[in-house]
Specification:
The complex is a heterodimer.
Chain A (H helix, E strand, L loop, with lengths): L4 H21 L7 H21 L6
Chain B lengths: L1 H22 L11 E6 L2 E4 L9 E3 L6 E7 L5 E11 L2 E10 L7 E7 H6 L7 E12 L1 E11 L7 H20 L5
Parallel strand pairs in B: 3-9
Antiparallel strand pairs in B: 1-2, 1-4, 4-7, 5-6, 5-8, 8-9
The chains are: A mainly alpha, B alpha+beta.
Chain lengths: 59, 182
């Protein structure tokens, strides 16, 4: 049983990207290599793992 | 067993990311014997303002004057230089210069109206920016970076507001992906 890995991966990728921009906008971290590349990759992995885990809707 | 391997790979990715995050805590100052100062709103900053926790702060006010000084340490002739904003592994150049320096100057200073720079921007920008650049020629080579914080409310800017909305939508997408399919 699993969720939607494609949706999770793409959403996680964009979540990482938007979080990177928000961190820059709020003066926490500039748009360096980690923010622009690392955070979206981490988001993608988290989204993929979360969809594989699929904690919602289990009976 | 197969699922356990995927978890291990995911964990390695996240650990690698965390190490990258810690590794960039220390930033490079200006190298090559050059130095400079800028005074904004009665506060003086130097090339030591090069980290996210110690940036050059530009308040969200009108009529600000930036008084700057610069020194190359040694006479640099037939020079060229540029400044750019660091975005990921690249740098977007927003100003460059070149000259001969036949007078043999080592020092320079001036005043700059911050509003003039803001007027040239297509949209209102806030946030933390790493600005890097160089000044090199016959007799010397300087390069380095500083951190600049443009104060303001991010949610009132197109970039900040759009990112906040995008982050919420992306989070909804991730949560939806976690719904089990029977």
């Amino acid at each position: 049983m699993s969720g939607r890995p494609v949706l999770g991966s793409i959403s996680g990728l964009f979540l990482g990207l938007f979080v990177a921009v928000l961190l820059q906008q709020y003066g926490v971290r500039p748009l360096d290599t980690f923010s622009v590349i690392g955070l979206p990759i981490i988001g993608l992995v988290v989204g993929l793992v979360f969809s594989m885990w699929a904690p919602f809707g289990r009976r | 067993m197969r699922r356990l391997s995927k978890w291990k790979i995911a964990t390695l990715f996240i650990l690698f990311g965390a190490l990258l995050l810690m590794g960039t805590a220390a930033q490079a100052a200006v190298e090559g014997g050059c130095s400079g100062t800028v005074t904004i709103d009665d506060k003086t900053y130097t090339e030591a303002n090069d980290s996210p926790s110690n940036p050059i702060v530009i308040p969200d006010e009108e009529g600000l004057i930036a008084s700057w000084t610069g020194s190359t340490g040694s006479v640099i002739k037939d020079f060229q230089g540029e400044l750019g904003v660091v975005i990921g592994p690249a740098s977007i150049v927003f100003v460059d210069w070149e000259g001969l320096n036949t007078d043999g100057k080592k020092d320079s200073k001036g005043n700059y109206q911050v509003d003039e720079a803001k007027d040239q921007l297509p949209v209102n920008l806030v946030g933390l920016y790493e600005v890097s650049g160089f000044h090199r020629g016959e007799g010397g080579d300087c390069e380095g970076s500083v951190m600049i914080l443009l104060e303001g409310n991010p949610l009132t800017t197109p970039v900040g507001g759009g990112s906040a909305a995008g982050a919420v939508l992306a989070l909804v997408g991730v949560l939806s992906a976690g719904r089990a399919r029977v």
